[in-house]
Amino acid sequence: MKNLSKKNEIVSSYLNQLLSLQPVGEGVAPIWDPNGEFIYFQHSIKNKKTISSINLNDGKIKKISDYKSGLAFLSSSMMTSSPDGQWLSYLNNEKKFVDRKSSNRNEIWLQPTSSGKEPIQLTKTNSNINSYNWSKDNENIVFSTNLFGSYDIFRVRIIDQKIIRLTSGENYEVFPIISDDCEKIYFVQLDETWTKHTIMVMNFDGSDIKPLVTDENFFDYHYGRSFGFPILSKSTNSIIFPSNRSGWINYWRKSLNGENLNILCPEESDQTEAQISPDGSSISFVSNTNGTTRLTTINFNEPQKKRKLVFPEIGIVSSPSWSPNGDKIAYYFGTPSSPSELYLVNLNNAKKIQLTSLNNLSKLKNKLVSPKKISYYSFDNMKISAYLYTPPNVITSKKFPAIVIAHGGPTSQFMDVFRSDVQYFVQNGFVVMLPNIRGSSGYGKKFEDSNYQDWGHGDLRDIVAGVDILKSLGYVNKSKISIHGTSYGGCISMSAVCFAPDVFHTAIPHAGYSDWLDFNDVQELRHRQLLKYKFGDINNNRHVYKRCSPIYHVSNVRTPVFLVHGQGHRPSSDASLKFANALEKEYKSFEYKIYPNECYYVQSKANLAEMYQDIIEFLNRF
After folding, report:
1. Minimal CA–CA distance to 79: which of 67, 65, 89, 93?
2. Which residues does residue 144 pair with via DSSP β-bridges, in sequence order?
């Protein structure tokens, strides 16, 4: 018993080390001070979000402040700075009342860049701000919030915190920017389906609102964040925006006089995170090719001559940010075996420098596994890309169990990022496959749309084709292949046991949903919009919603199921409990566990550690 206890302590210690590894930046671009001497960035220390700066002269890192409170679910802090560098600004969802339930309330906070000073709450709208932008004269911030039930554009004066409403349309109006001369405001107007984006322009006082350019067939799950801010190019007198009208998400340019719509740099890759250089002559952007992202710049005068600035063979380049004089770009870079750190590339000589090493890999370096990127063909000859992780020192004489993990979304993608769960499963002797099944983003619009009205069927067959690949490997135990996933990954894990009952040895759905009819009745707007986009109007397509719902087919289940999810905070759901009850009524083998003080999705380090260990214990029993 002592030896078993000692082994459990070692396993728990290793898992805690894995979970302590966190990407620097956490999706928020690095911020330069106006003199180019410091870079501000966000990171986590012992589960607490922190704002720090790094001195580029001596490399010293200094804590500026702990990040104030928290964020609404799926929100970004959108941390940035005032043009004069006096303030860092961010969104915060501080809960003021512990005795009542309230809606999400992201407000704008200002943090003095001098360390040790407390942040100031700028806005007090009691609503959910989803985007904002500074004026170049540092005197105003324009923002979008849902104070009156729909997202409208507002402006707040820094000096007296006075808020002025600028728009009052029925449709969502989001992601505003202010022109450099502070005379115009540009923003994005969504239609009622969130698939059509119209870039609008108005005077600084909200008068004379006019449309500039419209983009269609681009579903925006985050009601504006996928499309992002319009990008104003003074040097070309144009507005730049993302569009998939070429079949891929590429950046397009429309002149402000209404003429000459053209693609900037055509690629068979999805482009994101575009930034214009300080002098306005160039633009940088990130390209995603099969889960690997790369940093490119082009000069507006010679757009055909793109400069491949940071092009790793494997890894994620993210959140590029130009230095004030335009000779450097700060960015984050990580790989499947190392979380993102802060880097710098010099545009004069393309030299790259790693600025931070905040993740201690010394005790884990020899244990972390890099995947092999593979591809295979599904039932209809569609090419599916996947990641294959194998335990260290694989020998073909030993047979390893395997786990297929499905991603969420379903419009999402596995990429070259570090995953603590995968590393933990591999170290516990499991081969792990991460397939980018049909419907995934990152492989073009046609591939993304190929799961239309077919969730849990064609995409599940892509996973089953991946299982055939695993069975062909000499070191995989063909009779012990399981499926696991979170959110839509949990949904398709439920679908797997109902629609492909003999394929998997066990299934572990995390925070899944099994009844799209019920889901449409009880879920928040963004989810209902997604279903309408992918399934069609429920009044005309109830048969589609039901056909894709595994709960109506639980009598087919012949696989042990372990249902896991969180409970205690919003967003919440009883979908896993309903699936458990359906299994129980049919006398199926299942287990069900709730992790406290969570939303529906388990996210805290302590509960993740417990859940991962529970999953391994469950798998080892079957």
Report:
1. 89
2. 131, 153
Peptide bond before residue 336 is cis, with ω within 30 degrees of 0 = no
> Which helix (H) or strand (E) element contains residue 543?
helix 542-547
Integer Cα distance of 27 and 340 in angstroms: 10
CA 381 → CA 84, 320, 373, 406, 462, distances in Å? Answer: 56, 37, 19, 20, 10
Residue 493: which of 405, 600, 572, 424 has the closest Cα? 405
Long-range contacts of residues 189-195, Cβ cutoff 8 Å, at least 24 apart: 190/220, 190/223, 190/224, 193/219, 193/529, 193/532, 193/533, 194/219, 194/220, 194/221, 194/223, 194/529, 194/533, 195/219, 195/220, 195/533
pLDDT recorded at residue 100: 64
Over residues 567-578, mean pLDDT = 94
Record the tokens describing residue 291, joined without a space. 């889960």
Cβ contact 508:618 at 8 Å:
yes
| Angle at CA of residue 383, ends 410 and 494, nearest 5° | 35
Whether the Cβ atoms of residue 562 and residue 579 lie closer than 8 Å to each other? no
d(CA 425, CA 83): 46
Q: How far apart (Å, rounded) are the C-alpha atoms in residues 216 and 207? A: 26
The number of beta carbons lying within 10 Å of the beta carbon of residue 411 is 20
pLDDT of residue 105: 87
Sign of CA dihedral 283, 284, 288, 289: positive
* pLDDT over threshold 60, residue 2: no
- Helix, strand and coil in the chain, % to nearest 5: 20, 35, 45
Q: Which two tokens stand for residue 370?
A: 């890099």
Question: Of 65, 188, 175, whose CA–CA distance to 118 is shortest?
Answer: 65
Q: Which of 193, 191, 187 is nearest to 206 (CA)?
A: 187
A 10 A CB-CB count for 303 gives 17
What are phi and psi for residue 388, nearest 5 degrees? -125, 115
**Confidence label for 198 from pLDDT (cuts 50, 70 and 90):** very high
Query: How confident is the model over 509-565, as pLDDT tens digits?
Result: 999 999 999 999 999 999 999 999 999 999 999 999 999 999 999 999 999 999 999
DSSP strand pairing (87-92 vs 107-112): antiparallel
Q: What is the pTM of this model?
A: 0.95
Three-class SS string for 399-441?
CEEEEEEECCCCCCCCCCCCCHHHHHHHHCCCEEEEEECCCCC
- Nearest Cα residue to 274 out of 216, 221, 232: 232
Do 50 and 42 meet the contact criterion of CB atoms below 8 Å apart? yes
CB count within 10 Å of CB 136 equals 14
Tokens of 34: 């106006």
Q: What is the number of alpha carbons within 13 Å of residue 168 lying toward its C-beta?
A: 4
- CA 7/CA 18 separation, integer angstroms: 17
Secondary element (H or E) of residue 532: helix 525-535
